[in-house]
Amino acid sequence: MSANRWLATGNYFTSYREEQRIFFTSLDRTAMALFILGLFLWPFFIDVGNKYMLVIDNILIAVIAVMGLNLVTGFAGLISIGHAAFVGVGAYTIASFARVFGENHFLLSHAWPVMILAAGAMGAFFGAIVGLPALRLKHLYLAIATLSFQMIFEWTMKFMDFFNQGQTIAVGRVFWLTGEVSRSAHYIFWYYAILVLIVLVGFAVRNLLRTRYGRCLIAVRDNDRAADAMGMHPGLTKVYAFALAGFLAGVAGALHAYLYRGVGVESFTLHHSINYLAMAIVGGLGTLPGSFMGPLAIKMLDMQVEQLSEWASSHLAFAANLATALKPLSFGLVIVLFLMFEPRGIANWWRIARSYVKLWPFRY
Amino acid sequence: MKKDNLTRWMFLLGAVVMVTLPGQALAGEVYKLGLSLAITGPTSDAGNPYAKGVEDYFKYVNDTKMLGDDTIDCTIRDDQYKNDITKQNFEDFLDQGIVFYLNYSTGSTLALKKDFEEVKMPVIPASFHAGNLVDSNYIFLPIASYSDQAIGLAEYIVTNHKGGMPKVALFIHPSAFGRGPVEDLQKAVSAGLALEIVEVVEHGKDLDNTAMLKRLMSKGVQYVISQTVQSPVATMLKDADSLGLVAKSFGEEGKVTFLGCHYTGGNDLVALAGAAAENFYWTTSYIVTNEPSPGATAQLELAKRYNRDEKAANSHNYANGMMVAQVATEVIRRAKAKGKEINNVTLYEELQEMNGDNAYSPGTTVGPVTYSKTDHTGVDSLQLYVVKDGAFRSAGTPFIPKYTGKK
User: What ipTM does the predicted assembly reach?
Assistant: First the structure.
């Protein structure tokens, strides 16, 4: 360990325990504490309005979903292109309760943290079921298996009367210590609720990766036969990777249901699955910081392109069709460019920047 | 010295007040409205002319000082037919302080219903789904619902069909928009409308409907009522034409007569289906520019004034957008004339008083717009049109379906 706890310049560990620490220096720990504190405090000083608060809440929900996707695809190396369906399972768990007991039932309005966990559990259950083919399938074949789950999910929601044939199922307002969360406080309330969850989930994932189970994920990704030979259980590892991903997706889905106060199938389509995958790729597959950076980058890109295509279609009559194509075009282009030039994602830029600062004034 | 300074400041302040005050006194109120719709993405072929109709009419209101010095500032946002983005746009409009909201799709209208109730915002959507009005106090349909339209077409079939009980198939969009009228039509049949619904077809993105048409023929289907958008109908009509199935006259034996609700028809259908669109029956509450009328002239002049192309100028969706802007302007004008403060509450009240002698005739519709506390459907009358020589022509006079009250 470095003599200076604040400014370690290299990686020098004298025990495995040291290597497994979450924060390597006190500076890291302090910076993270200040960053989290900043996330909790900024709404007291800046009023961004309901629209942007909704966008921010959306980004945070995507962060939870992408953390799940990163576990299964980034760390365990199992391609999942049905992640939005797992998010949908969580959302429809809430919607099902609303359908059976009524949108303002005590369970939904007062016991909402329990409902969010229940939605996560349902996501984990379906994740484990969909993960079963991973015992036999790999690579493209596994991707197709997850895709088929996405298709089955969409079809079921669109055609079953119980799920209102995919149309919105309303979810009531929740209660907090001060009473019912009003419309004016809705988005800020969910900002804090999601933020608390993100902090907990972020540390949980970071801790998972320090444990035997987390290391198993990476070992199975790198070489499942070698992992097997080392005494790990690749099959079980793959199934629990899917289950964990499903849990986080389910939690994200429940949060989406509460945030939008309704659930409709159009928020959980294949397009959204591709979107989550793009967030994971752009952020950096197999990295925890990437799960935060990817959703932020893709959602920001989305908003900018939306504004650009809106401007193009209103000011350039001939460009209306082009404007329609602008969003998928830019989206596809960003993914291709990242895959070609920065396959390790924005998280790698973050790593380089940190190394540069760490070594400064010496050259990187 | 201090006194000099004070005098100087007082003079400056007085000058500023004198310069700015008259300007402020003369400047009228600005009423903020919002419209979220699909300018790009799915259904943008309808959303584009709709947005232009809204935009042009509000420009016209401001340019001609229809509200005196007061002006309407309607922000139009693209939502790409996605409910999540519509919600974002609506929240943005609320942040801006809108007094009236114009929405678009069925899905987003249903998804935001609770929000409209909570903020007590009067809303006119471009969706005519009857379900929009269920458990809602603030949504107002501009014209007769899809259910009313489908029932109106069914009544026309029953009245004009020769022979036994007519066999009908429904060709619908796989969404709430498409499914909306199915249950209501089935209820009308149960209530005594003498026809048989043989099959309900939810179309996909098929480029060929041959198999479906042959199946319908094998079941003896004589009429197909469509509740979807133009392109799937055009595909079906072209396939039916190539199979020689399209009836040359209404109810021709051994052939199929095709009919459709508001969003299936219009000039775009003729452009897409070509000669196969001939004898297609279509119902809507809007006038068409193929036939001279004061409303058609006003529509064409408005489009010309703001340099719109022929396609937009003659679109029934341009008329659709123009009409909701006319209604919004009219309620503001009426509330203003009564000396009321213009806000969502007073405009809501004013909308509900738009009936009896206060009914409003915008000219772009085949009947007056009437709303009340119990009636949130604007134009109750429907007009049947049929394609003759490549253009939609009136078939009969405007009518109000009888079985709509028997849901």
Answer: 0.86
